[in-house]
Design goal:
- Pfam families: FAD_binding_3 (PF01494).
- Keywords: Oxidoreductase.
- This is FAD-dependent oxidoreductase.
- The protein has 396 residues and is an alpha+beta fold.
- The protein folds into two domains: 221 residues, FAD/NAD(P)-binding domain; 92 residues, D-Amino Acid Oxidase, Chain A, domain 2.
- It has eleven helices and 20 strands.
- The strands form four sheets. Strands 4, 5, 12, 13, 14, 15, 16 and 17 form an eight-stranded mixed sheet that branches. Strands 1, 2, 7, 8, 9, 10 and 19 form a seven-stranded mixed sheet that branches. It has a three-stranded antiparallel sheet with strand order 11-18-20, with no helix packed on it.
- The longest helix has 21 residues.
- The chain is globular and about 60 Å long.
- The chain binds flavin-adenine dinucleotide (FAD).
- Flavin-adenine dinucleotide binds next to helix 1 and helix 7.
């Protein structure tokens, strides 16, 4: 039976990045991914503060090689009040990270996994995790193709939380328990109004809905609508639901006028939750396997990457210091507390959005140079920065 320092389950951004960090630190890492890549995945708009992680692992060189479109800001328009606001990432606090990228996930995830492999991660794909047996000295991992042993295991399996769900509960976030999204890829969506071609546009629509348009390199744009389940739709009604929301909102209608759909519609529902615990003695969760928030602020991949950064630090320390627990108080980070802090701040920002009148609220701080910089830094994903005044004063 093969033995590893760490087994990572799931080859999405969270799993891949945890595995890469650990391989770069010289550990023996196995990553198990059940799907053959490329495969479709939603979560296409990245945040500027993720570039910190990308630079640390070195993946930034792939990301910035010209294949992906640069995202310099986020444009919010309100279809009800006809108002708009632009978050220019270059004005975010000290603007440590002035841009991000928009990525077609099938390509991005494949690039990330190949990069992990190049850095020394052993990848088994397609191979499906089945179960794990824990002991004081490690974990016995069973897949559909074999049995392996490791000192630690990372659950990066996304919403399935396949490693840790047998021993813990998922708690749904009551604040937006009923949200669902309908989305597809289109060609010919108007980009002429954007300050910079790769900017994300978030539309505040009538009837408690909001939309995203995420432009990719070339002519394809991802377009989605998020709404509450008061307006629940079945798959066969998705096109009608989508077209009606476009027709109801003049600005959205205008930018979609010449758009042609190039993928089927997809639906995801009830996506906000957190697991009871994020880390244990021999296990840790990253990304969606840990928690997931409503996607207005494109926080998903960023949370996955930040969790990968902090969990891999604890695993590295544990491996070098007598294999202590990942949740041992002697370890580098109180991982759970650290992750709950950043996720909690995103939640506070979401509350400001969902309570309504979002653009006006931002206008009120717009005149105050430092507050606006702090808000842009927050929208850029700087939720783990204590230098941010909105966070220091508990506003976020
Ligand atoms: C409507 C919507 C819009 C979104 N928009 C954005 C956005 O604009 N920006 C953003 O950053 N995020 C967005 N997200 C969130 C984003 O999709 C996720 O947060 C992100 O993909 C999480 O990455 P991950 O690595 O944790 O998990 P995933 O990307 O889900 O990867 C998990 C991997 O684990 C594998 N796996 C699962 N079970 C097993 C098993 N038994 N054995 C082996 N492998 C397994 C899966 O095949 C998968 O490849 C959005 C989400 C939704 C629902």
């Amino acid at each position: 039976m093969s033995s590893y320092d760490v087994i990572v389950v799931g080859g999405g951004p969270g799993g891949c990045t945890t595995a890469t960090y650990l391989a770069l630190k010289g550990h023996k890492v196995l990553l198990i991914e059940k799907e053959v890549f490329p495969r479709f995945k939603i979560g296409e708009s990245l945040l500027p503060f993720s570039m910190e992680v990308m630079k640390e692992t070195g993946f930034y060189d792939v990301l910035s090689s010209g294949k992906y479109i640069q995202k310099n800001g986020a444009y919010f328009f309100d279809s009800v009040t006809n108002d708009n606001i632009y978050f220019d990432f270059a004005n975010g606090g000290k603007a440590e990270f002035p841009h991000a990228y928009e990525v077609i996930r099938s390509e991005f995830d494949k690039d990330l996994l190949e990069y992990a492999q190049k850095k020394g991660v052993e990848v088994r794909q397609p191979e499906e995790f089945v179960n794990a047996e824990f002991s004081d000295t490690g974990v016995m991992v069973k897949t559909n193709k074999g049995i392996y042993h490791s000192k630690y295991i990372v659950d990066g399996s996304g919403r399935a939380s396949i490693v840790t769900s047998p021993f813990q509960k998922k708690v749904k976030n009551p604040f937006y328990i009923n949200n669902f999204a309908v989305f597809a890829h289109f060609e010919g969506v108007d980009r002429s109004y954007l300050k910079s071609e790769g900017d994300i546009c978030v539309g505040i629509l009538k009837n408690k809905a909001w939309s995203w348009t995420i432009p990719f390199k070339g002519n394809t744009t991802s377009v989605g609508i998020v709404s509450t389940q008061e307006f629940v739709v079945e798959m066969q009604q998705s096109e009608e639901f989508f077209d009606q929301r476009v027709a109801d909102n003049p600005f959205f209608h205008q930018i979609m006028k010449n758009a042609k759909r190039t993928s089927p519609f997809m639906i995801q529902s009830n996506f906000s939750y957190a697991n009871e615990k994020f880390v244990g003695n021999r296990w840790g969760t990253v990304g969606d396997a840990m928690s997931f928030l409503d996607p207005v602020f494109s926080s998903g991949v960023h949370v996955s990457l930040m969790s990968a950064k902090y969990l891999s630090t604890n695993i590295d320390f544990a491996l070098r210091n007598g294999e202590i627990g990942l949740d041992d108080p002697a370890n580098v980070h109180n991982y759970e507390e650290l992750m709950k802090m950043g996720v909690g701040r995103f939640h506070n920002l979401l509350q400001i959005f969902y309570e309504g009148d979002f653009i006006n609220k931002i206008r009120n701080i717009e005149g105050k140079e430092h507050s606006m910089g702090a808000m842009i830094a927050a929208v850029s994903g700087g939720m783990w920065r204590d230098s941010n005044s909105l966070m220091r004063f508990g506003i976020l």
